[in-house]
Amino acid sequence: MSQPTLTQIWPLRLANADFSLVDTSVLTSYLCFRHFEPQSTLPLLVLLVLIPAFLTIPISYHVQSPYLAPPLAFLAYGCLLILFILAYRLSPFHPLAKYPGPVLDKTSKWWAAYISARGDPHRYYKSLHDRYGDVVRVGPNELSIRDASLIHPVLGPGGLPKGPRWDGRPGLPALIEQRDPIQHMHQRKPWNRAFSSTALKEYESIVAKRIRQLVGCLEDRVHSSDQKEGAVLDMAQWMNYFTTDFMGDMAFGGGFELMKAGGDREGLWTLIESGLHVIAVLGHVSYLLPAYLSMMRGGDTIQRSRGLCREKALDRLRMDAKRKDLFYYLSGEDMPEAERPPIGNVAKDGTLAIIAGSDTTSSVLTALVYYLLCNPAAYHRLQEEVDAAFPSGEEPLDVVKLSHMEWLNGCINETLRLHPPVPSGSQRSLGRGKGTKVLGNLIIPEQTQLFLHTYSIQRDPRNFHNPEVFLPERWFSTDAPVGEHNTDAFFPFSYGPTICAGKNLALMEMRMLICWVLRRFRFSKTLGFSYETWDVTTEDWFVLHQHPMLASISRRE
Ligand code: HEM
Q1: Does residue 15 carry a pLDDT above 60?
Q2: Confidence category of residue 501, pLDDT binned at 50, 70, 90
Q3: Which PROSITE patterns match (predicted)?
């Protein structure tokens, strides 16, 4: 007995002519999607609603009830469209067909969105590299790369511009969202002025004031604690309060006061944070972001936080402060009046400074305390170095001295290596019509997105010997232990024209804070807290998100 063909199967008992009409319509729509990538409403309406609605007519001649025709037309159209897309993505004709990777990743970005929702991208991509090699296909058109020799060609001057993960956000793009390299260069100018060495000098007193306040808050907690080992504090939380208060001073002339209130009194920080995870997830399917923002409460959250940041920017303008903080440069107070940006842009840049400058720095500070607690010999050696550099009573304000403390800087680098705050790097893309590009030993077809996976590159034994071990001495300028040590593979602040604008500020802040708290306090492990598992609970929301990290703190005599 012969098998029925698709055209004979109920409910799609179509005549051959009608079947090819469905077929041709789906194929045409598929090609339109592939070549034009329509994002605006009208073409999407035509392709996803109008064409299947039109197919209802031929299908209605072949079904028993006319009411069945519309759902069948949409179902058949949708299924065939998905089938075409999947078949092409898995076929040997796809430009990225030669790169290995899991089928789920090759077929859709929804899998990556799911991994992001779990907070796991950094560990997941590392496991893929361990299994498949240096170049892994992690999306239909996306590659993850674990090859340090490609850092310069991809991220350096003349490399690739930022990718579509930054699309779909409302309003003018902030610096980090700017995909056009020329616009980016233009927008970056005030940031470069704000982080020049002369400007950095001005910020020392602002950092010092906030560290003094942090030390005071910790002292109060230690004082009021009745525990023998001192106060048990969540270092992730306190480091976060500190960095947010400090960035609030820099970006808007102050006003967060998380340390003073022991929490987020105003709610602005919580508002900003609440959007980060959602945006990290939807960044994989960024065409959905505008719809999400307009339909869901996410839109409200962003509008509210934007409104509050705008108010803060206006307050700071009214202060007419003479001090040269980040706001001074971002608002163009150092420029003629005619060249100053509108207040909306300044508020957006200020918000970026708070997001980019607080979670990142606080996650390194927390992880550094964690590594010291887990490596008593390293802790002891750092304590000795700090005590020798800043004898009793002296505040660690000398930034030149701080920058030469070899063990301190080894500990910071080692934390940034094992625990990069942006673990999965910054996406790049080669747009449509750009042709094929050769970067190092990699041939990239147009319309490819890629990222250099910082977490995997910095834990690769070909770059660093004993890569999973915390070894500050590997960073010594002389007498470093023998073994692989490829400093070109160390890029926690990224690289090239988009390298972190606040790198030098972050380093100054971290060096000063670590020395200051080690002069005053003794840190020890808190009984019952699981240090073995804390490290693997960190979540990658583009920026690392940390769970509580408890430490017992007592005053040093
Ligand atoms: C340990 C602390 C920090 C680390 C590891 C870090 C890392 C990074 C990384 C990886 C990027 C992405 C660069 C790219 O797209 O190629 C970035 C961008 C940026 N960071 Fe940081 N960051 C830190 C602290 C700060 C601080 C304190 C600020 C101060 C405001 C800051 C401001 C920025 C800005 C404005 C950008 C956008 C740069 C651009 O697109 O041109 N960061 N950072």
Answers
A1: no
A2: very high
A3: CYTOCHROME_P450 (PS00086)
For ligand 1, the distance from its centroid to the CA atom of residue 440, given in whole angstroms, is: 25
Token pair of 513, please?
A: 């804070």
From the CA of 354, give the closest atom in ligand 1: 30
Q: pLDDT tens across 452-483, in order?
A: 999 999 999 999 999 999 999 999 988 888 89
The β-bridge partners of 543 are 541
pLDDT score at 247: 92
Write the pLDDT tens digit of every residue in 286-300: 777 777 777 765 556
Quote the ipTM score: 0.99
* Residues comprising the chain, all counted: 557
Domains: count for the chain: 2
Residue-wise burial string across 92-111, b where 16 or more C-beta atoms lie within 10 A, e elsewhere? eebebeebebeeebbbbbeb
Of the three residues 26, 56, 89, the one that is the final residue of a domain is: 89
Mean pLDDT of the chain: 88
Please name the helix (run of DSSP H) or strand (run of DSSP E) that holds residue 19, with its range, or none.
helix 16-36
Residue ID of nearest Cα to ligand 1 atom 25: 357
Domain boundary among 57, 72, 89: 89
Which range of residues forms the domain containing residue 498? 164-420+492-555
Q: 329: domain CATH number?
A: 1.10.630.10
Residues with CB under 6 A from ligand 1: 175-176, 188, 191, 352-353, 356-357, 360-361, 364, 421-422, 426, 492-494, 498, 500-502, 505-506
Residue 451 lies in a domain: no
